[in-house]
Amino acid sequence: MSVVGTTPMIVTAIGVFVICIIYSFLLSFTNSKLFPAFDFIGTDQYARLWATPRWLVSANNLWIFGLLSIGANMVVGYLLAVFMDQRIRQEDLFRSIFLYPFAMSLVITGLVWRWILDPNYGLQATVQGWGFTDFQFAPLVDSNTAIYGLVVAGIWNGVGVTMAIMLAGLRGVDGEIWKAAKIDGIPTWKTYLQIVLPMMRGAILTAFILQCVGVVRVFDLVVAMTQGGPGIATQMPAIFVIQHITDRANVGLGMAAATMMLLPVVVLLSLQQFIQWRANKKRMNAL
Question: What is the pLDDT of residues 168-184, one digit of tens each?
């Protein structure tokens, strides 16, 4: 593709991403309210942000949601990839089934799981209708368990794409590795865990970063399932940002929160680039 052909994409990327990010970052140092204003107040917005209980709850919820959903997605995704790597029958069908949740809108995913976890006509009501009247499973109505209901929906949505990335990594492993492991009498599960898994650093890192970015910007799923409730029990940073920019007319504080959301993404992408640079350097030295 010629330079002329790529110019519109370059302009769009610079205009939409770079300039907008810099503009938002600058606004986080201002006292902007309903409309942006360049009356700089230093880091006051950041101090105010970390003294706001709603933001602290949002950050804590993000950690809980992120650790549980990412951890489960990585483990279950790898196990599903191992299952698919057995050259099973109807592999294309199973791959489509596992990837289907990721292709769905997060709003639809949230609405489906809100219905499933609703105590009046979801899973709890169904099981009780079978005669198990003591069965209780309605996490979304309790502020202490609502976040775990979101985790369940997040795992269902993200495990398929993790499986696809891991499967691509497994299929990229040299067949001679498997032959050597069989000759040495190494069990299959040990080969997958101790030999093949460390060789999939690229696939693992890609899946991990994709999951992390999805967690940081989670918004639609929460709005569709709980709208941040009960109370603020499932409040997330993305909801905090939107509410303060629109409903609460506090652009400065909202942009400070948005900048804090951007930091882990920048760190993760920088880490990915560093690891890739080191891998390329080792490869070049080996040559």
Answer: 999 888 888 888 888 88
When pLDDT is cut at 50, 70 and 90, the band that residue 62 belongs to is: very high
Give the pLDDT confidence of 212-226 residue by residue, as tens digits: 888 988 999 999 999
Residue 29: inside a domain:
no
- When mean pLDDT is compared across 1-10, 105-114, 182-191, the lowest value belongs to 1-10
Residues in the chain: 287
Which of left, alpha, beta for 131 (phi over 0: left; psi -120 to 50: alpha)? Answer: left
Q: What's the maximum distance between 2 C-alpha atoms anywhere in the chain?
A: 71
The domain containing residue 184 runs over which residues?
54-286
8 A C-beta contact, residue 125 and residue 119: yes
pTM of the model: 0.87
- For 86-117, the pLDDT digits (tens) are 888 888 888 888 888 888 888 899 999 999 99
The total domain count for the chain is 1
CA distance 1 to 175: 36
CATH code where residue 152 lies: 1.10.3720.10
Does 110 fall in a domain? Answer: yes
CA distances from 140 to 130, 161, 215, 247, 248 (A): 22, 26, 19, 24, 26
Residue 71 lies in a domain: yes
Asked if 154 contacts 65 with a C-beta cutoff of 8 angstroms, the reply is yes
**143 backbone φψ class: left, alpha, beta (φ>0; ψ -120 to 50):** alpha
Residue in the structure block whose two tokens are 């030295």: 285
* Within a domain: 112: yes
